[in-house]
TrEMBL record:
<protein>
    <recommendedName>
        <fullName>ATP synthase protein I</fullName>
    </recommendedName>
</protein>
<keyword id="KW-0812">Transmembrane</keyword>
<feature type="transmembrane region" description="Helical">
    <location>
        <begin position="52"/>
        <end position="73"/>
    </location>
</feature>
<feature type="transmembrane region" description="Helical">
    <location>
        <begin position="79"/>
        <end position="97"/>
    </location>
</feature>
<dbReference type="Pfam" id="PF09527">
    <property type="entry name" value="ATPase_gene1"/>
</dbReference>
<dbReference type="InterPro" id="IPR016989">
    <property type="entry name" value="Atp1_alphaprobac"/>
</dbReference>
<keyword id="KW-1133">Transmembrane helix</keyword>
<keyword id="KW-0813">Transport</keyword>
<keyword id="KW-0406">Ion transport</keyword>
<dbReference type="GO" id="GO:0045259">
    <property type="term" value="C:proton-transporting ATP synthase complex"/>
</dbReference>
<comment type="function">
    <text>A possible function for this protein is to guide the assembly of the membrane sector of the ATPase enzyme complex.</text>
</comment>
<dbReference type="InterPro" id="IPR032820">
    <property type="entry name" value="ATPase_put"/>
</dbReference>
<keyword id="KW-0375">Hydrogen ion transport</keyword>
<comment type="similarity">
    <text>Belongs to the bacterial AtpI family.</text>
</comment>
<keyword id="KW-0472">Membrane</keyword>
<dbReference type="GO" id="GO:1902600">
    <property type="term" value="P:proton transmembrane transport"/>
</dbReference>
Amino acid sequence: MAENEPGLDPLTEDARITSLNERLAQAKTEEAIRKGEGRDKGEASYRLGNRVLAELIGGLVGGAVIGWTLDYFLGTKPWLLLVMLFLGIASAFRNIIRISNQRSK
């Protein structure tokens, strides 16, 4: 019965308010992106894991290749390979520790 009673018509939304809401939403989105809040935490963890894996593999392979090359040219067969391999591993672990300390803010 209340539906049929005469009364005030609902006001239509003002175009200025709609425009203001759109600009406000866009500004919030841009601010979140600028602060880095809009990123997915799972994606950041995935990238960090890939970076750690790349550091470890890069240290191992780099040390082995450099050591093998020096052994080949200097004729000191497994010694420089072993030394450079261990230096590559140590360098990889140092970089991984540095990365993990950097992310623990």
